[in-house]
Model the fold of this input.
Amino acid sequence: MRDKLNASNRFGKKLTVKYDLLKELFESKKSIVISTHRSPDGDAIGSSIGLYHVLIQLGHEVTVLVPDAFPHFLEWMDGTDEIIVFENQEDSAKQLIKTADVLFCLDYNRLDRVGEMGEFLKQASAFSILIDHHIDPDTSFEFILSDTKASSTAELVYRFLSEMNWLGYLNLSIAEALYAGIMTDTGSFKYNSTTAETHRIAAKLIDQGMFPDKVHSAIFDTNSIQRLQLIGYALSKKMTVDEGKGISIIGLSLGEKNRFKYKKGGTEGLVNYGLSVKGIKMAIFLSEELSITKLSIRSKGDLDVNKIAREHFNGGGHKNAAGGKLDMKLKEALNYLNDVIQNKLDL
Ligand code: 5GP
Ligand code: MN
Done:
């Protein structure tokens, strides 16, 4: 089985995915790990949980494994209490990876996106399946469903279910999870990655009896007052705008985040305010952590921030939404960023 599939993967990205062979793989009970990227977002958790509920119904032993904690506003999804967080339960996570027959890699394109957990995934003997929409996927996976034009990994999971003839297993929990993934990665269906097909899939999910407003409210209407105050503070005190170059920058130190009782995911979406300023074509948000500074970069139109993140910020992502990290404190990172903007970018 493995050899047959391996043979069909020699052509790297040109591979025509062999669903028939995959169907054979899932005919007998398997131990399956579904993994996703560091700092899991709505698409990472939504696509993983959606797939999880299908595989459970098929009788497999399934665990969703994430490198680090996910934001509390995703906890409402059915099954998130079963998720194993590598950072907190390293021993059981390693054991699961070691003994897995099948490893799903969702919403990331290469193993360095999952931090330390990646080292263990690399050594796993499991049959590896990549489902993802990031540019330039690593071709070492044994089965690849990669479409950089897809709105979200959740949309690709739906496509995967369709190809596997598993759509009959759709239920309310799956519909809510996949809808959440699509909704968060499309900026609530507003980015151009939102196609007619995206809406057709959303319609099929709604047909399962879900309410879009429940998913939307669970994710966006659970702000703490401190979170809103942190955003207010960042916008009023920390945003700089270079109108000439069309760039806005916000940087928050660890101390500033702590002052507002920052929790994981608490600055999600902040970078989009910077991009909403008239005339701005690139917005950058820097968030200081213990030993690094994380960057979120967004752009409009043809400005390719995936390329910028790769070349200058040890990161990547999509053309209009990317991220990266610098091994520096915020102050140093801001100086480095300024040097890149003034001297390295052609804007
Ligand atoms: P965010 O700014 O929301 O953290 O991430 C935006 C996009 O950039 C996401 O698609 C995410 O996968 C990608 N991204 C964020 N951080 C990194 C990183 O450190 N490395 C890479 N390769 N991609 C990143
Ligand atoms: Mn995604």
Summary: The longest helix spans residues 42-57. DSSP finds 14 helices and twelve strands in the chain. The pocket of manganese (II) ion (ligand 2) is lined by residues 43, 107, 133, 152-153, 185 (CB under 6 Å). The CA atoms of residues 120 and 320 lie 31 Å apart.
